[in-house]
Write a structure and sequence with these properties.
The chain is built from three helices and 13 strands, in the order βββββββββαβαβαββ. With about 210 residues, the chain is mostly beta strands. The protein has a seven-stranded mixed β-sheet with strand order 6-7-8-9-10-11-13, with helices on one face. A six-stranded mixed β-sheet has the order 5-4-3-2-1-12, with no helix packed on it.
Length: about 210
Amino acid sequence: MHIYWHGQNCFKIVTKEATIITDPFGKELGIKPPRTGADIVTISGEDYTADNIKNSPLIFDTPGEYEAKRTLIRGLWSHRDNKKGQVRGVNVVFTMEAEGIRICHLGDIGHLLDEKLENKIDGVDVLMIPVGNKDVIDHKTAIKIVQQIEPAIIIPMHYQIPGLKPKLDDAKSFIRELGAQKVKPEDKIRLTKKMIPAEETEVKILNPV
């Protein structure tokens, strides 16, 4: 499995059987939108669109349990604020399992996990978590969610990068509190089930492609 980051919530996950794109965005964000083919697209909320994704992918944008291209996908209701969606609406958290690796993509989540959601996410290997505040959780709430889930690998997303028009916080505070200041950004992450750390949690930082 290889994982690439396009910025914001958008990852490209390439397995032996499928290419998966999460939360693709348009040019209005000011950064280069993903223009690639995919077999599967997950969309956590109304700010994202698969219009630029080629190959007529399967699109999952609602809660439920799905299976496609030897990938198990589960969508879970959550909210984009801490007032049960009354301010910014709903968000779909996705878990994906392929090649024995379980990934959770939190989308634009705006709150701590309640017990029900925590139980459904618990045990994931890779947690993709927003840390940029403003439209999503801030870094302190993100740290608390990490403590709730205790994933093997953490990948921060949805934070300020050069060219991004929305003004978000950067990822420095989140990374510092995790003690990961010395982690070097990578262009891609290669993972196999055997590479998932069994003891300590690892932080992975990606350069946008």
